[in-house]
Amino acid sequence: MIALTLIVCLQAAPAECKPEPVAFDGSLMSCSMYGQAVAADWIRTHPKWRLQRFTCGIRGREQSA
Question: Under a CB-based contact definition with an 8 Å cutoff, are residues 31 and 55 in contact?
Fold first, then answer.
């Protein structure tokens, strides 16, 4: 299972960031290729947040932000 994690920060408080796990069904390669599009969809529906970065990894082996 692949884990897609967005690191998002509040627009009003840029230093306040958090990891946001997002459902992703696919391979590690497809996450690397399409993760940005998934992140853009998430940001469109959460306008108070901005994307700092996204990471793809093996579920259960996620690194802390």
Answer: no
Which of 16, 20, 58, 62 is CA-nearest to residue 39? Answer: 20
What is the number of residues in the chain?
A: 65
Question: What is the model's pTM?
Answer: 0.82
Reduce the DSSP state of residue 33 to 3 states and report it.
helix
pLDDT in tens, 34-63: 999 999 999 999 999 999 999 999 877 655
Residue 65 structure tokens: 């932000």
Name the residue ranges covered by the structural domains of the chain. 2-58
Contact 8, 18 (CB under 8 A): yes
Cβ neighbour number for residue 36 with a 10 Å cutoff: 12
